[in-house]
Please model this.
Amino acid sequence: MRAIYLSVMIFMLSLLLISCDNKDYAREEVYCTASPTNDTVVLAYNKTIPVFESCKENLHIAFTQVTDTRCPDDSACTEAGQVHVVLQMDNSFSVILEPDIILDTTYKGRSYSFQVVDVLPHPKTNAGVTASQQRAVAIIKRGNIIPATY
Model:
């Protein structure tokens, strides 16, 4: 009788061990990039593009304004000038950026990092550049969900 009891206990214990695996059933979030190729996107002036399409919460971003006082490439200036761009997310949230400055912000409960790498074309002395000709090259990274604090 004792042998049967021990056999049943070993059998039950082995079933328990087989059914318990070490999986973490919490939803793991997969890293996703702004575009299928990387976190770098090229934005045409006033054209909305989808970013983070492979993510659960994607965005639509547009390059909506530009202020360009940079020195023309074919000139010698005493000051370099500046360029600022406005990126608008989902027609409801905007950020003002300048090259090489990383802006970290929260939008819809998630952290994002924005950085304009360049605005093209660069100004030339005898060739005016309209806003519609310009492209903003930006790095957009999506971070973690920020827990709400009350």
User: Anything to note?
Assistant: The longest strand covers residues 110-120. The helical segments are 2-19.
